[in-house]
């Protein structure tokens, strides 16, 4: 019985081996025929690739080896003729590209043991053409630079860095050229009052050269001037709740939204947007006797003009909705604390609370006294809650610590406040993003 089982295992393994060998043979033969087809069509490089694949699978396939030697040599001859033609036309980058194809084909062939010959002066010719291509790209970059075509100049210099094996001196020259272009571009931006663009391009110079060298020092000065000239100041005025939601929204919600927006999301302004000092804003509001009231557009403009800000932002909570969804109730049987033999019941309620708030805001140009953005933001958050209800004093019940928390009204309020804070935080983040995005959009 054991001999029969071993024989079956051997036969199964042999069958699998023969199947895989047959599949491999079919695959090799198919690739060989594909190579022959490419060869008949005169597509010698592609034919060579197929023969290389054949030899990678079956190194003993001599027909494939001989054909690879033949079509490889013919492909190289064609490539060399193309290279010489490109050289005559002074298209040195194209020359190098063709020579790279020769190198790639030779590397692939060598991996399967076939050496494809090239002329004795091939290495010298390749080195000469690479040097000519590098010189040509420098020349083209400088031409674009003199023409003020910064994008094209950088494309040439970046291509040098990305594609060609530069010497240390050539690499330094390419970096200096790129830094020079970014410096000129930044200066042009500054003259055109494109302050953000000037800052960004000056930063590119610093990234390439560093802040301590000549061009880097110039770039830092450009950034300083761009920030000084281009920064816009915005005053955030206190938010309020409209009359129709004053009794619906949590008390002090508008004030809390204002504080979170101002002291968390706008406390570290982005480049080119400066937030006016809140103390100065509030002092001016008190001086004008606008405190504790909804601020009109004209009131906001007066505040902005008096404290010399470019923009003012006002906002109000226009709607607030608290919904309870998916309610579930479960009755729990529980012992009494003083009489363990007696039982009673309490109800556990589970539900989802969804809070939705709608805020209207305006960004007003203080100088021109016009609204540049007036929009509404609608935000909501939700969370699951559990509450315990008992017709009597729940402290008479024999409850675990987690069960007692179901009746703790302070715990209830903390959970509700946590959800309200989450809503305010989400809303403040969206408001800050809108404010920054709109004002930055005014600065090129």
Automatic annotation (TrEMBL):
Q: Which Gene3D superfamilies does the entry mention?
A: ABC-type transport auxiliary lipoprotein component (3.40.50.10610), Tetratricopeptide repeat domain (1.25.40.10)
Name of the protein this chain belongs to: Tetratricopeptide repeat protein
Supply the InterPro entries for this chain.
Answer: TPR-like_helical_dom_sf, TPR_rpt
**Species, as recorded:** marine sediment metagenome
Secretion signal: which residues?
A: none
């Amino acid at each position: 019985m054991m001999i029969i089982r071993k024989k079956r295992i051997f036969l199964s393994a042999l069958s699998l081996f023969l199947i895989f060998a047959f599949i491999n043979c079919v695959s090799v033969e198919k690739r060989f025929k594909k190579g022959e087809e490419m060869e008949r069509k005169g597509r010698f490089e592609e034919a060579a690739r197929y023969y290389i694949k054949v030899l990678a699978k079956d190194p003993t396939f001599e027909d494939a080896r001989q054909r690879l030697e033949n079509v490889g040599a013919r492909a190289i001859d064609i490539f060399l003729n193309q290279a010489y033609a490109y050289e005559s036309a002074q298209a040195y980058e194209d020359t190098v590209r063709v020579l790279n194809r020769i190198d790639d084909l030779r590397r692939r062939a060598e991996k399967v043991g076939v050496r494809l010959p090239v002329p004795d002066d091939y290495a010298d010719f390749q080195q000469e053409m690479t040097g000519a291509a590098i010189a040509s790209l420098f020349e083209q970059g400088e031409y674009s630079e003199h023409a003020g075509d910064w994008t094209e100049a950088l494309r040439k210099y970046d291509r040098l860095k990305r594609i060609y094996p530069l010497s240390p001196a050539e690499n330094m020259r390419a970096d200096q050229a790129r830094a020079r272009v970014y410096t000129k571009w930044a200066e042009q931006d500054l003259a055109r009052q494109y302050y953000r663009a000037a800052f960004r391009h000056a930063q590119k110079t610093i990234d390439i050269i560093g802040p301590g060298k000549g061009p880097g020092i110039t770039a830092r000065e450009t950034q300083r001037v761009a920030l000084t000239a281009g920064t816009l100041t915005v005053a955030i005025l206190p938010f309020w709740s409209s009359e129709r939601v004053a009794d619906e929204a949590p008390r002090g919600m508008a004030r809390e939204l204002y504080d979170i927006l101002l002291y968390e999301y706008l406390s570290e302004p982005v480049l080119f947007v400066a937030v006016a000092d809140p103390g100065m804003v509030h002092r001016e509001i008190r001086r004008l006797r606008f405190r504790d009231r909804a601020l009109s557009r004209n009131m906001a403009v007066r505040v902005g003009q008096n404290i010399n800000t470019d923009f003012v932002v006002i906002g109000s909570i226009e709607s607030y909705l608290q919904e309870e969804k998916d309610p579930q109730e479960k009755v729990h049987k529980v012992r009494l604390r003083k009489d363990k033999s007696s039982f009673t019941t309490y109800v556990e309620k589970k539900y989802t609370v969804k809070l939705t708030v709608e805020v209207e805001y305006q960004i007003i140009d203080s100088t021109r006294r016009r609204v540049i953005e007036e929009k509404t933001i609608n935000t909501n958050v939700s969370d699951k809650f559990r509450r315990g209800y008992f017709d009597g004093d729940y402290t008479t019940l024999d409850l675990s610590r987690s069960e007692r928390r179901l009746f703790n009204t302070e715990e209830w309020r903390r959970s509700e406040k946590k959800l309200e804070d989450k809503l305010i935080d989400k809303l403040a983040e969206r408001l800050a993003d809108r404010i920054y995005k709109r004002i930055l959009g005014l600065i090129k």
